[in-house]
Amino acid sequence: MKLLVVDDDRHAAETLCEILRDIGHQCVAAMTTEAALKIGRSDGIGLAVIDVNLGVGIDGISLARLLRTRSGIPTLFISGSSSPAIQMLTREVGVGFVLKPLTRFALKSAVEDATARLVRTPS
């Protein structure tokens, strides 16, 4: 599957892509909303992995809504916060959630769960 990773921290985005490639996925990283939306318009993105807090500009939840509306791309969220509000919003908008700091195993499991969920309930 081809994944789009969006994180305003370049090192974090590159690390996530490296892990995702190691477990068999293609991966494209974006550090800005604009870059993510541009990549999202291209064919082949099956899942976005988005940090909830993107720093400057819109937040990851708003970006996920835009990607879903414009390009039909579902989102797996990552965040360093496990607050009930974040958990609720990510459940409403996304297909999964992984708490930072994440492990290779947690990311792999979350991507597999999200993929299985998408197969059961296509958009």
From TrEMBL:
Residues bearing PTM 4-aspartylphosphate: D51
Domain Response regulatory: from-to ranges: 2-115
Entries under PROSITE patterns matching the protein: RESPONSE_REGULATORY
Keywords: Phosphoprotein
Pfam families membership: Response_reg (PF00072)
Gene3D superfamilies: 3.40.50.2300
GO BP terms: phosphorelay signal transduction system
Descriptive protein name: Response regulatory domain-containing protein
Organism: Roseiterribacter gracilis
Organismal lineage: Bacteria, Pseudomonadati, Pseudomonadota, Alphaproteobacteria, Rhodospirillales
